[in-house]
Each structure stands twice: as structure tokens, then as C-alpha cells.
Amino acid sequence: NAGVTQTPKFQVLKTGQSMTLQCAQDMNHEYMSWYRQDPGMGLRLIHYSVGAGITDQGEVPNGYNVSRSTTEDFPLRLLSAAPSQTSVYFCASSPVGDEQFFGPGTRLTVL
Amino acid sequence: GQQVMQIPQYQHVQEGEDFTTYCNSSTTLSNIQWYKQRPGGHPVFLIQLVKSGEVKKQKRLTFQFGEAKKNSSLHITATQTTDVGTYFCAGDYGGSQGNLIFGKGTKLSVKP
């Protein structure tokens, strides 16, 4: 079991560029989520999904899109990157209501 | 909205001293989870508390869930350098989605 994998590990973007952060899990978990972590702010929920074809917004969804075409994959798209999106992004998966398994994270810098 | 407050933000201890971090919610939680994040790493699940007044132990770590299910604490006895990291509580308010609201974390440093 690879668990939760994320790519890339590091990324530098220029303002206005778009990109997709990849997340995959091989544990057949229904629930998947994206968080951003900023210094002193803890983990804030961006988007989540409770199954293939179902997504919803979390606490800080603006500027991000997600889709869930399969149980395994949950990509996060930045439509037009802004410096305020500089952060560490974590993907997580779990059975609904159970412990969450986190990926290793993507460190994103937007110049 | 729903919010989980966690204190202190930082704690510096001498190796061998005890450490406690506290979480508080203004509304009743369905359950609370605790995670540890080592420097440069990702959050790793420690435990989930579900029952009112529940106390669980993992070696030197003691977790408590308040009687009203609004507060929780993590206590580490006789800290070691391996305990260094940030400890997060995460509240589940019982929605069907299973979303967690994370506290801002307590960053623990241990001086040998």
C-alpha cells in the first residue's frame, strides 16, 4: 500500500499561471480532502469529496477547483495562481468519520 | 461558525518535564481526533475520542475528552526529544461528511 501520494513535492509558479496538484490513494477510502497549511493557521479545509462524482466546498475554496472522477484520485486545480496561495497543501483520505491519512504535502510558492 | 481553539501556541520544555495542550469548542463535538506533525512532515493520526469523559493512554501520552464533549487535552509525561513537533486537535461536529475542524496546533520544542 502506497497510502496517499501527492505530486509534485515542490512547485514555483508565477502569478496568473494555472496548475494541478495531484492526489491519489489506494485504500479505497470514500472521503478525500484538500487542506492548506499556513504558519500559525493550522490546517484549513479547501474542498472535500465523499465519493466519486461528489465534491463540496470547505472553509477556503476560492481560487481552487476539484473533481472526483474515480475513488482513487482527487486533483486540486489552481485556476490563476496568486501570491496568497503560497502555502503547503495536504491531501487526506479516510473512511467517512474515521482517522484521516495525509499525503506528504506539496510546497507551493507563487511569485 | 464552528471553531476549535487550541492553546498554547508554543511550548518549550526541558527534557523530562511534562507537557499539556488544550482544545476547546463552543459547541458540542461528536468526537475529537489528535494528530502529530513532525517538523517538515505531514500530520499523523494519534487517537480518536468519542465518549463523554473518555480517557485514553498511549505510553506517556494521556488523552481526555470532557464530560460535555466540548473540550479535550493531551498530556505528555516526561517529554523526550522524540516528542518534538506540532500537536493538533481536530473536532468532528457530526456532519454526514465527516469534515474535521482543526485547531491551530501547539508547537512543542524539547531541550535536551
Task: Tell me the layout of helices and strands.
The complex is a heterodimer of chains A (111) and B (112).
Chain A: E1 4-7, E2 10-13, E3 19-25, E4 31-38, E5 42-51, E6 54-57, E7 64-66, E8 76-78, E9 87-94, E10 101-102, E11 106-110
Parallel strand pairs in A: 2-11
Antiparallel strand pairs in A: 1-3, 3-8, 4-5, 4-9, 5-6, 7-8, 9-10, 9-11
Chain B: E1 4-7, E2 10-14, E3 19-25, E4 31-37, E5 44-49, E6 55-58, E7 61-65, E8 71-76, E9 85-92, E10 100-102, E11 106-111
Parallel strand pairs in B: 2-11
Antiparallel strand pairs in B: 1-3, 3-8, 4-5, 4-9, 6-7, 7-8, 9-10, 9-11
Structural class of chain B: mainly beta
Rg from alpha-carbon coordinates of chain B: 14 Å
How would the global form of chain A be characterised?
globular
The number of helical segments of chain A is 0
Instruction: Report the sheet-strand fraction of chain B.
Output: over 45%
Counting DSSP E segments of at least 2 residues, the number of strands of chain A comes to 11
- Please report the number of helical segments of chain B: 0
- Percent of residues in helices of chain B comes to under 10%
Give the overall form of chain B.
globular
In quaternary terms, these chains amount to: heterodimer
Q: CA-to-CA gap between the ends of chain A? A: 36 Å
Q: Portion of residues in helices of chain A?
A: under 10%
Mean pLDDT of chain A: 95
Main sheet: strands, sense, barrel of chain B:
6 strands, mixed
Please state the structural category of chain A: mainly beta
Q: What value does the Rg of chain A take, in angstroms?
A: 13 Å
State which percent range the strand residues of chain A make up. Answer: over 45%
Low-confidence spans of chain A:
none
How do the SSEs of chain A run, as a string of H and E?
EEEEEEEEEEE
Order of helices and strands of chain B: EEEEEEEEEEE
Protein described:
- The complex is a heterodimer of chains A (111) and B (112).
- With 111 residues, chain A is an all-beta fold.
- Chain A has strands at 4-7, 10-13, 19-25, 31-38, 42-51, 54-57, 64-66, 76-78, 87-94, 101-102, 106-110.
- In chain A, 0% of the residues lie in helices and 52% in strands.
- With 112 residues, chain B is mostly beta strands.
- Chain B contains no helices and 11 strands.
- Chain B has strands spanning 4-7, 10-14, 19-25, 31-37, 44-49, 55-58, 61-65, 71-76, 85-92, 100-102, 106-111.
- The N and C termini of chain B lie far apart (41 Å).
- The chains are: A mainly beta (111), B mainly beta (112).
- At the A-B interface, strand 4, strand 5, strand 9 and strand 10 of A face strand 4, strand 5, strand 9 and strand 10 of B.
